[in-house]
Amino acid sequence: MGGWITGTLSSMGYIGVVWLTFLENVFPPIPSELIMPLAGYLVAQGRMTMIGAVLAGTAGSILGALLLYYVGRWYGEDRLKRFADRHGRWLTLSSRDIDRASKWFAERGTWAVFVCRLIPGLRSLISIPAGIHCMGLGKFLAATALGTLLWTGLLVYLGNLLGENFERVGQYIDPVTKVVLGGMLLVYLWRVIRGTGHLD
Protein backbone atom coordinates (compact mmCIF):
# COMPACT_ATOMS: atom_id res chain seq x y z
CA MET A 1 0.00 0.00 0.00
CA GLY A 2 2.89 2.34 0.74
CA GLY A 3 4.09 2.19 -2.86
CA TRP A 4 0.62 3.01 -4.19
CA ILE A 5 0.29 5.99 -1.83
CA THR A 6 3.73 7.25 -2.82
CA GLY A 7 2.97 6.88 -6.52
CA THR A 8 -0.39 8.64 -6.18
CA LEU A 9 1.05 11.63 -4.34
CA SER A 10 4.04 11.89 -6.65
CA SER A 11 1.94 11.83 -9.81
CA MET A 12 -1.18 13.72 -8.69
CA GLY A 13 0.19 16.25 -6.21
CA TYR A 14 -2.45 18.17 -4.25
CA ILE A 15 -5.30 16.32 -5.96
CA GLY A 16 -3.70 13.08 -4.82
CA VAL A 17 -3.60 14.36 -1.24
CA VAL A 18 -7.32 15.25 -1.39
CA TRP A 19 -8.20 11.87 -2.94
CA LEU A 20 -6.15 9.78 -0.50
CA THR A 21 -7.32 11.62 2.63
CA PHE A 22 -10.91 11.26 1.44
CA LEU A 23 -10.39 7.50 1.07
CA GLU A 24 -8.58 7.35 4.42
CA ASN A 25 -11.68 8.70 6.16
CA VAL A 26 -14.05 6.32 4.40
CA PHE A 27 -11.73 3.29 4.56
CA PRO A 28 -9.69 3.70 7.80
CA PRO A 29 -7.12 0.98 6.92
CA ILE A 30 -5.61 3.57 4.54
CA PRO A 31 -3.31 5.42 6.99
CA SER A 32 -3.20 9.21 7.25
CA GLU A 33 -0.07 8.56 9.30
CA LEU A 34 1.68 7.73 6.02
CA ILE A 35 -0.17 10.02 3.59
CA MET A 36 0.42 13.36 5.30
CA PRO A 37 4.04 12.84 6.43
CA LEU A 38 4.81 11.85 2.83
CA ALA A 39 3.20 15.12 1.73
CA GLY A 40 5.47 16.82 4.29
CA TYR A 41 8.47 15.13 2.68
CA LEU A 42 7.36 16.47 -0.69
CA VAL A 43 7.20 19.91 0.93
CA ALA A 44 10.82 19.47 2.05
CA GLN A 45 11.71 18.64 -1.56
CA GLY A 46 10.01 21.80 -2.79
CA ARG A 47 7.35 19.85 -4.71
CA MET A 48 4.52 21.15 -2.52
CA THR A 49 3.99 24.07 -0.17
CA MET A 50 3.26 23.58 3.51
CA ILE A 51 -0.02 25.50 3.30
CA GLY A 52 -1.10 23.70 0.13
CA ALA A 53 -0.42 20.24 1.59
CA VAL A 54 -2.23 21.01 4.85
CA LEU A 55 -5.25 22.52 3.08
CA ALA A 56 -5.46 19.63 0.60
CA GLY A 57 -5.30 17.06 3.41
CA THR A 58 -7.91 18.94 5.41
CA ALA A 59 -10.23 19.24 2.40
CA GLY A 60 -10.06 15.52 1.63
CA SER A 61 -10.70 14.60 5.26
CA ILE A 62 -13.71 16.92 5.47
CA LEU A 63 -15.20 15.38 2.31
CA GLY A 64 -14.78 11.88 3.75
CA ALA A 65 -16.23 12.96 7.09
CA LEU A 66 -19.23 14.49 5.33
CA LEU A 67 -19.93 11.23 3.52
CA LEU A 68 -19.96 9.27 6.78
CA TYR A 69 -22.01 12.00 8.46
CA TYR A 70 -24.72 11.64 5.83
CA VAL A 71 -24.56 7.83 6.08
CA GLY A 72 -25.35 8.22 9.78
CA ARG A 73 -28.05 10.77 9.06
CA TRP A 74 -29.62 8.50 6.44
CA TYR A 75 -29.62 5.51 8.79
CA GLY A 76 -31.19 7.58 11.55
CA GLU A 77 -31.84 7.15 15.23
CA ASP A 78 -35.19 5.37 14.86
CA ARG A 79 -33.76 2.71 12.58
CA LEU A 80 -30.79 2.27 14.94
CA LYS A 81 -33.19 1.76 17.87
CA ARG A 82 -35.11 -0.92 15.98
CA PHE A 83 -31.84 -2.63 15.13
CA ALA A 84 -30.77 -2.43 18.79
CA ASP A 85 -34.07 -3.99 19.88
CA ARG A 86 -33.35 -7.01 17.66
CA HIS A 87 -29.60 -7.36 18.22
CA GLY A 88 -29.05 -5.65 21.55
CA ARG A 89 -26.70 -8.20 23.05
CA TRP A 90 -24.21 -8.15 20.21
CA LEU A 91 -24.43 -4.39 19.80
CA THR A 92 -24.10 -3.99 23.59
CA LEU A 93 -26.75 -1.36 23.05
CA SER A 94 -30.38 -0.82 23.92
CA SER A 95 -32.85 1.82 22.77
CA ARG A 96 -32.53 3.37 26.22
CA ASP A 97 -28.75 3.62 25.69
CA ILE A 98 -29.38 5.36 22.39
CA ASP A 99 -31.67 7.90 24.07
CA ARG A 100 -28.98 8.64 26.65
CA ALA A 101 -26.32 8.91 23.95
CA SER A 102 -28.49 11.33 21.98
CA LYS A 103 -28.85 13.56 25.02
CA TRP A 104 -25.11 13.39 25.70
CA PHE A 105 -24.28 14.15 22.07
CA ALA A 106 -26.66 17.11 22.03
CA GLU A 107 -24.74 18.59 24.98
CA ARG A 108 -21.17 17.70 23.99
CA GLY A 109 -21.27 16.80 20.31
CA THR A 110 -19.10 19.64 19.03
CA TRP A 111 -16.38 18.97 21.57
CA ALA A 112 -16.55 15.20 20.97
CA VAL A 113 -16.14 15.60 17.22
CA PHE A 114 -13.19 17.97 17.64
CA VAL A 115 -11.35 15.75 20.13
CA CYS A 116 -11.98 12.52 18.22
CA ARG A 117 -10.56 14.05 15.04
CA LEU A 118 -7.23 14.08 16.91
CA ILE A 119 -7.38 10.44 18.06
CA PRO A 120 -6.13 7.67 15.74
CA GLY A 121 -8.77 4.98 15.36
CA LEU A 122 -11.67 7.30 16.18
CA ARG A 123 -11.06 10.06 13.65
CA SER A 124 -13.37 8.60 11.01
CA LEU A 125 -15.87 6.82 13.25
CA ILE A 126 -17.07 9.94 15.08
CA SER A 127 -18.75 11.24 11.90
CA ILE A 128 -21.36 8.46 11.96
CA PRO A 129 -22.86 9.17 15.42
CA ALA A 130 -22.76 12.87 14.58
CA GLY A 131 -25.01 12.12 11.61
CA ILE A 132 -27.22 9.67 13.47
CA HIS A 133 -27.91 12.24 16.19
CA CYS A 134 -28.52 14.97 13.60
CA MET A 135 -25.76 17.24 14.83
CA GLY A 136 -26.04 20.63 13.14
CA LEU A 137 -24.08 20.60 9.90
CA GLY A 138 -22.40 23.93 10.65
CA LYS A 139 -21.16 22.75 14.06
CA PHE A 140 -20.05 19.43 12.60
CA LEU A 141 -18.07 21.10 9.82
CA ALA A 142 -16.47 23.61 12.19
CA ALA A 143 -15.37 20.96 14.70
CA THR A 144 -14.22 18.61 11.95
CA ALA A 145 -12.30 21.31 10.09
CA LEU A 146 -10.51 22.58 13.20
CA GLY A 147 -9.57 19.12 14.50
CA THR A 148 -8.52 17.94 11.04
CA LEU A 149 -6.47 21.08 10.40
CA LEU A 150 -4.49 20.51 13.59
CA TRP A 151 -3.96 16.79 12.92
CA THR A 152 -3.02 17.29 9.28
CA GLY A 153 -0.75 20.22 10.06
CA LEU A 154 1.11 18.19 12.69
CA LEU A 155 1.69 15.25 10.34
CA VAL A 156 2.83 17.47 7.45
CA TYR A 157 5.18 19.35 9.76
CA LEU A 158 6.70 16.12 11.11
CA GLY A 159 7.10 14.72 7.61
CA ASN A 160 8.83 17.91 6.52
CA LEU A 161 11.06 17.79 9.59
CA LEU A 162 12.07 14.15 9.16
CA GLY A 163 12.59 14.35 5.40
CA GLU A 164 13.41 10.93 3.92
CA ASN A 165 12.63 9.35 7.31
CA PHE A 166 8.99 10.49 7.14
CA GLU A 167 7.75 6.91 7.64
CA ARG A 168 8.96 7.08 11.24
CA VAL A 169 5.88 9.22 12.02
CA GLY A 170 3.62 6.26 11.27
CA GLN A 171 5.84 3.96 13.33
CA TYR A 172 5.28 6.15 16.40
CA ILE A 173 1.56 6.71 15.88
CA ASP A 174 0.68 3.13 14.86
CA PRO A 175 0.99 1.75 18.44
CA VAL A 176 -1.39 4.46 19.68
CA THR A 177 -3.94 3.41 17.04
CA LYS A 178 -3.62 -0.23 18.09
CA VAL A 179 -4.04 0.64 21.77
CA VAL A 180 -7.19 2.68 21.09
CA LEU A 181 -8.77 0.02 18.87
CA GLY A 182 -7.67 -2.78 21.22
CA GLY A 183 -9.21 -0.94 24.16
CA MET A 184 -12.47 -0.52 22.26
CA LEU A 185 -12.49 -4.24 21.46
CA LEU A 186 -11.89 -5.22 25.10
CA VAL A 187 -14.69 -2.95 26.31
CA TYR A 188 -17.01 -4.42 23.68
CA LEU A 189 -16.20 -8.02 24.67
CA TRP A 190 -16.64 -7.21 28.35
CA ARG A 191 -20.05 -5.68 27.69
CA VAL A 192 -21.12 -8.68 25.56
CA ILE A 193 -20.08 -11.11 28.27
CA ARG A 194 -21.93 -9.10 30.93
CA GLY A 195 -24.97 -8.91 28.68
CA THR A 196 -25.08 -5.12 28.83
CA GLY A 197 -26.93 -5.05 25.56
CA HIS A 198 -30.02 -6.81 26.95
CA LEU A 199 -33.02 -4.55 27.18
CA ASP A 200 -34.54 -4.00 30.60
TrEMBL record:
The keyword RNA-binding does not apply. Residues 30-160 form the VTT domain. It is found in: Cell membrane. InterPro entries: DedA_domain (IPR051311), VTT_dom (IPR032816). It comes from Lysobacter korlensis. This is DedA family protein. It is a multi-pass membrane protein. Keywords: Cell membrane, Membrane, Transmembrane, Transmembrane helix. The chain crosses the membrane at residues 12-30, 50-72, 140-160, 172-190. Pfam families: VTT_dom.
